[in-house]
Amino acid sequence: MPKKSYRNAINEAMAGEMRRDSSVILMGEDVSGGTGAPGEDDAWGGVLGVTKGLYSEFGASRVLDTPISEGGFVGAAAGAAITGLRPIVEVMFVDFLGVCLDGIYNQAGKFRYMFGGKAETPLVVRTMYGAGLRAASQHSQTLYSIFAHVPGVKVVVPSNPYDAKGLLIQAIRDNDPVVFFEHKMMYDDEGDVPDESYTIPFGEANVLRDGEDVTIVAIGKMVHLANKAAENLAKDGISCTVIDLRTLSPLDEETILEEVETTGRLVVVDESHPRCSVAADVSSIVAEKAFKSLKAGIGKVTAPHCPVPFSPELEDLYIPKIADVEAAVRRTMA
Amino acid sequence: MSAQNIYPIVMPKWGLSMTEGKVVKWAVAEGEKVEKNQELLEIETTKITNVYESTKSGVLRRQFAPLNEDIPIGSLLGVISDAGIDDSAIDAFIEDFLANYVPPAIDGEGGPSPIAVVEVDGRKISYMRANEDADAVPVLLIHGFGGDANNWVLNQEQLARARAVYALDLIGHGASSKDVGDGTINTIVDSVAGFLDALEIDQVHLVGHSLGAACAILLAERLAQRAASLTGIAPVGLSEEVNADFLAQYLTAERRRPVKAVLQMLVNNPDLVNSEMVEDFQKYKRLEGSTEAMSRIASSVMPDGKQQHDLRPVLFGLLCPRLIIWGAQDRIIDPSATDGMPETIHVEIVEGAGHLPQLEAADVVNALIERHIEQIG
Amino acid sequence: MQLNRDDLLKAYRTMATARHFEESVFENFSEGRIPGFVHLSAGQEATAAGVMMALDERDWVATTHRGHGHCIARGMDLQETMDEIYGASSGICGGKGGSMHIADLDKGMLGANGIIGATGPLAVGAGLSAKAKGDNGVAVAFFGDGGSNQGLTFEAFNLANIWKLPVIFICEDNGYAEATPSSYSVAGTQVDRAYGFGMPGVEVDGFDFFAVHEATRDAVERVRRGDGPSLIHIKTARYYGHFVGDAQTYRAEGEIDMLRADKDCLKIFREKVVGAGLLSREQLDEIFEEEKERVEKATLAAHAAPRATKDDLMTDVYGVY
Known about the structure:
The complex is a heterotrimer. Chain B is α/β, with parallel strands linked by helices. Chain B folds into two domains: 3-100, CATH 2.40.50.100; 115-374, Alpha/Beta hydrolase fold, catalytic domain (Rossmann fold), CATH 3.40.50. Chain B contains eleven helices and 16 strands. In chain B, β9 (115-120) and β10 form a beta hairpin. In chain B, α3 (185-198) packs across α4 and α6 packs across α7 (275-286). Chain C has a single domain (5-301), classed as Thiamin diphosphate (ThDP)-binding fold, Pyr/PP domains (Rossmann fold), CATH 3.40.50.970. Chain C is 46% helix and 9% strand. Chain C is built from 13 helices and seven strands. In chain C, β6, α9 (209-224) and β7 (230-235) form a beta-alpha-beta unit. The interface between A and C is large, with 47 and 48 residues.
């Protein structure tokens, strides 16, 4: 299988779907980068080059550079989605969703229900999340729990290039609004990605490792920490199951519960803040539905409850580490 | 005692794509006696977890490799020696081994890629090759329904000591084109015959599994003198029955748990099926066109859960030496299909194996195939 | 295109239905038969009829929380619309939307909206779809004087103009955003705002069906040509409060009586067409009574309509996987 980066896998998913279905359009700030400028038209292809080449192939009527106007174009995408298009909107950083939340959670996310099941809203909002780029408080957050909280909005957090392509194709073909989270530190990660088209269904977690002692549930970039921690712990004879949730809404409760029932211990790893987070949510589901199989208190590894700091020293302290996961697992074994 | 009676145990290379593996479990404690072919340890690779049997008899002196760590192929896992050798000699042996150990080249750094693609009748056929430059009559491994070349992960390299061994992905499978035309067995056989022609392979030892074995039987008939021998592992076409539940679930299962359950039906020991194998099979099933290809083949070859073709007359009429291998615990096609075989066909029932004896009892199956082939040359 | 006699009859009938509908909702809400809260458009019927009669089937309309009249004028089923206001399962949205989120995509109605300022971007999106489809469809965004002050509305103006989209922005200004008068809350004029974004804007008398209709027809013609968006500022007034139950103490004494007496768009319409000898008083009276009866019948049916049940709660949330 050919090796491709996370960035290329995402680009390939969009290009493939735009070729397959003429109602798929892409809009966002600098997704072409340079539309109407005196120099090159397709100068940027997104601020980190994820949409590069799409403008050249599909033209200005399907790849729309937007003004810096997230509220306007996210709302417009919601309107386009219920009137026959399949828009993919790039909101550069998830932090910016503060100025355009309405289009997602009051409009797109509610049409189907409010309109008695008669509306389909095939909208994908792609957005970057996560710390590590020294981008500080307003460009580094991990805000998926806000969207997972809202019924009607699907939330997808791919952890690797293969999943990114298959989940994005599924998101584009899906008839409900999807917020698709891309970790900005993972764009250069490489992995096996088939050239062919394929979809990964939503609500189906991936079990990366089968273990006997502790179940580690992880999201997005944290999956790699969880895996590495599990490898290290195995040397000491602690065997961990690692679950990559893949989608937070819908959530694969069944796999979480089944694996916890096998191991009797749970650690959740989430780059988000601890309060009202997916980590808290998964913990509560397990506490509620698998209490009797638990042999120890649930462990949570999250960022602290403070904004993402700028100083590299502070940001490094902020981001969860492999050692944190190992320590949390050991605590459940103590 | 001479140093010749100290033996290293090294990380084996199971399959062409294996670069490293993990020791999951030792079955023998340090200082315990071990016999040749006794289970020594368990190794996990990205493709499969399998038992490693000792190649020597003696005493296990050292469990050198740490558990559950990625270890490159060829690296030292442990040491076996004859009884009565000093610990210091063992230490010296280990020191010497490590000093002379050269890590293997990693994929893409030197040497041709084991995976190649050839075009046959406008379709891409992906295949893996081992020892391609050898002169002896080569072997072609043909996997079964829903499988791929990786089904031979424990066989291809092992059979390639003296000859080239090719393992292809049938059309509709693996990384080959998903276009299977009318999905009939003849179309599949056409493409395998085309594959041999494209690679300019004249004489060939055919080894097929399940549906691949049916293909091998039909191909042997077509190739006539070019077929040097035939090995069929649990072939389709020798009985009417096939596990209809398996077929139905194999085609429709999408989610992790049902996929795992259906893959477990293929083997005798369900622990062999780990989450990684499940995800690999799901990856294949998610590819555009793969499910349609499988359905088309199934409805042509095994409509309504019954085998459509009776290949017994063809098999019985072949002139080349024939070996049929069957797992005693096969739950997909019952081994009773071998009842009433003429004596000219060599039949071997392998205990402790299900429908995939080449994976579950790889050493036994490899030895059987090798003996079968070597008696011809 | 000149309106013929049938068009005039239709216009009056639409305004009459809308008026009776709101009177019925007022009465039944006051008597506790309708849940939640409702925002009535009585007094603003000329806008509903005047705008909708300039549109056709391929067009899209995103409307506000004060949208009953627009729904009726757009041809949504009267009974299903009434049932929805009552939260009945026979409502057009199965009782899940209600007055503030009533929609009918088959009729090009993108819904009433509980969020002030949300309609502009939605219409921009519908304009993108129309342009992609190439059917010369037009998207209309209604917003009030309140919505005119939301940033989203300005963002929508900008997007529609830079992409030359077939969008008509209609500021249906009834003088009050909740209790705050537009004289206090709106800086500059709506028309100047339109020009600021490079699109034409006109101000029209919202009590005059003909003025509204003509302005909309002109805008539709321009927009269908591909010349980009337009804005219409309709100055009108509501008879009822922001919601039913609003004591409206912020309004001037006698303001509403004056509006009902002198600024009733139905009366103004009658005088014009009867004065010009186009229609007779008797014809119009008959239509008024017919629509009253139709709305009464729909009201009684809504009282008896089936209620949504537990089984309806969790449907239409996610697709089935």
